[in-house]
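This section describes the prediction task in plain terms. A model, or a person checking by hand, is given the sequence of a single protein chain and must write out its three-dimensional structure as a string of tokens. No templates, partner chains or ligands are provided. The sample shown here is typical of the held-out split.
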Amino acid sequence: MQSTLNIAGITLLVIASLVLVLFSILDLIKQKTPESKITALTVFKKIAEVLFMYILPGIGIAITNDKCDTHPFENNSTLSAYTLWIIFALAYTASRYFKQLLSPMLTTIVSGLMAIGLLFCLAICIHFIPMAAVIIFPGFNLLYLSPFLCFFYLLKEIIQLNKYLKKYLETQNTTASHIINTFYRSIHQNHLGFVTVLIAPLLLIIQAALFLVGQQPDSIITQFTESCGYLLSKYQDCSCGGGHYLCSIAANGNKKLVQPTRFGVRANQRILVNRQLLIANAFENWLEEHTPKMHKVIRNSYDACNIPVNKWSKHKKFANVLYIFMKPLEWLFLVWLYLFDKKPEDRIAKQYFPKKELNEYLNTHSYERSN
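The expected answer:
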């Protein structure tokens, strides 16, 4: 019964995800439905717009802020990410629903703020490239698709606002000052070009405001570069130490089964190690030493899976199953090391040794080999 309910739940999630994405695409490519005519199509399109523009981006920023796992935004710069999201969401709202109330000057500023949102969403889309495989999973795909769809919502609205402003200025016979008239004529002739020039000063003002509330002076950029595990990230190893990878979790299973051998150190934290974990890490160490490019591809692909291993570390039964599941890989890694490494047992034994103990081990074994 429980399995049937699970299958039904997953099926509904898949259908809901597909429907939301489909209606978002329809909203982006189809002409506007008259406001007076409310249909099921317009209702679903509105739900999709609200989700992708106003709800999912905020949820995405919140739930990916894990210091010991991959995170697309630097942990201390999430305020910058929230600020940029709120600014472009408010600008989109002003343009989408209140453009008739905006003066030409304010319309240009709103366009500039939406253009900043456009660049922000584009940067996130590029940043998320390592997570492209996640879009096939229902539920998760909505979070990772939201910046992509936000980009097109903003682009469509900027084009619509540009058309509206030009039509509005054509019908205006203003008696304002010469400077104002010149400004109106310039934005009428090339509004999008004017908006592009406006992006830099607006960004400078936003960054200055963020600096005043404690953000770094370049947080709009470093929120991406100081993150971990994504395309624009400076760091790819996001572990805080402890049980973070699959074999590390398996080592925490039932002692009679997993047979822990000693404690080791990773990222300045003590972890429990067993023969399986030592072999797996020795194999990775061999790859890193002899085929660094292949190792980087494998490591990035593994990290991009974003497996929630930290949540599994507290369950010994799961660790037992994982240990058994990893056994064939352990044997494969061991065969590889014995075939292609001159001193396989030395490489295995020295994994995760604290520095002092590692030096003692190496000195002892080098003495034994010399005799």
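For orientation: Residues 246-370 form one domain.
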